[in-house]
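Hey, I was hoping to borrow your eyes for a little while. No rush at all, and the record is pasted right below:
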Amino acid sequence: MASSSSSSSAVAIELTPANFHEVTDDKTVFIKFFAPWCGHCQSIEDDWNALAADFDGDTSGQLVAEVDCTADGESLCSEFGITGYPTLKWGDPSDLRDYDGGRSYEEMRRFADENLKPQCSIKNLDICDDDRRALIVRYLDMSVDELSAMADAEEGKLREAEGRFHAEVEKLHARYGELSKEKDDVIAGIKMAGFGLMKSVLRSM
């Protein structure tokens, strides 16, 4: 069990494509995907580093780390479908799950204590439920070419979804600009029509 801490000057291990597999191998992980300019990321930085310090040097297969989506970790963020910051994920490094809990040190530490345990994986089939074990066995029975084709198809779906997301966001930005201009034009027209004087006279009656 990792030691308790509420503050630390330590910095979480930064994961990149070059070290990801080596650092996360055989571990249950808790990873923060972030951008340095992100205000929400900055607000949890101290608590995240404190949490990482708690598990620094842990020998029971637990890891708290982070990925900078604007630097060397950009391709990892794309691989894991990161579209907002900060995004926290946890579990088996090859099958990360979204963390939707609180962002305070106490909440994240409590979650880590309860969940950073060995997860269902190829190396831990004995702890898998029947459905996930059957899925892993199915994948293991497939050829490399078959499994690669299936993985490529799923990655294609992710890229397509991300492309649609960004396209729709651009449309929303454009529509926002149009609506903002319409509102400003209406306000300007009302002012030109003497609305202020109208209300002043009305109050005097």
